[in-house]
Amino acid sequence: MGVLADHAIRDMVARGEITATPEVIDAQVQPASLDLRLGTRAWRVRASFLAGDGRKVADRLAEFEMHQIDLSNGAVLEKGCVYVVPLMESLALPEGVQAVANAKSSTGRLDLLTRLITDEGVEFDRIAPGYHGPLFAEICPRSFSVLVRPGMRLNQIRFRAGQAILSDTELKALHSESPLVDGTAMIDQGLGFSVDLKPASGDLVGYRAKPHTGVIDLDNIGYYEPSEYWEPIHAKDGRIILDPGAFYILVSREAVHIPPDYAAEMAPYLAMVGEFRVHYAGFFDPGFGHANAGGAGSRGVLEVRCHEAPFVLEDGQIVGRLVYERMDSRPERLYGADLASNYQGQGLKLSKHFRAQ
């Protein structure tokens, strides 16, 4: 019982519980999740929606469609607009397996809101046991317009059998056996983490997205000049003021470790912790930051958006928590050790599309 590992996901494909056109490729299979691929067509819709009980996404598209876009030769999804894209993958889940989806790390760092919706779905990114049907990505670029093509992987799906979440007591025991953070662990409904606004060297603490920028082609890796898209944020006194509506990339003080037999998901700390939201591209794979996978702790990158009022964010303020889950078995490949992993050992870092600073 637990989060299904890479070899179990391959077994699901072999049994026809995960199907795709074209077929699932090995590069999609991560240690504890499956990358999902965009299909060939997008629908520009008037507003975000859920299918709802007894309703199909295709029926709701007929209600909210503005126009359709052929992605075959690449197409721009414009900032501030909402799109629905059928994915190449479909599911036929057994009754004992549920699924949860989340944006991939690079997607979140571009403020590219990407959520999974399904037929008869009443929640984003959550799929009930026994679901049989297609998958759709709802995409809303919030800071940058992006160029996409069929087969691009913006979100990922994780499969669970039974109850996998560790209690605080179990998490404390795991931390004593295999440290989950460097230093003191703040454990309360998960492993708490805080924002770093007093870096060990210099005063660069983050980046704020510029409001009027060019298009980002998601196939271009290490291509874009950060200064054309991001404004560096400096703090000399351990605090910054978040501007309403602005999007920030910050970093946690804690260096996180995910042991090989566990996975984790980032979650909000408290809904009313402040006038901001940490947008969590939430999956942390087995081996992230862990010594067995060539890591020495990796800090969590925080994707932060301020709401209605300016808000003072101070060094050490708790902004989120990691919920740890058991794997059903150890993955064949670990994050950072057996896979090319962009963010192993990371500190403050923009998405992989930007040149290193």
UniProtKB/TrEMBL annotation:
Sequence ranges assigned to domain 2'-deoxycytidine 5'-triphosphate deaminase C-terminal in this UniProt record: 167-354
Enzyme Commission number(s) of this protein: 3.5.4.13
Domain of life the protein comes from: Bacteria
Alphabetized Gene3D superfamilies for the sequence: 2.70.40.10
Domain named 2'-deoxycytidine 5'-triphosphate deaminase N-terminal: residues: 2-163
InterPro entries: DCD_C, DCD_N, dUTPase-like_sf
Protein keywords: Hydrolase
Pfam families: DCD_C, DCD_N
An annotated GO BP: 2'-deoxyribonucleotide metabolic process
One term of GO molecular function: dCTP deaminase activity
Listed name of the protein: 2'-deoxycytidine 5'-triphosphate deaminase
Organism listed in the record: Celeribacter baekdonensis B30
Lineage summary: Bacteria, Pseudomonadati, Pseudomonadota, Alphaproteobacteria, Rhodobacterales
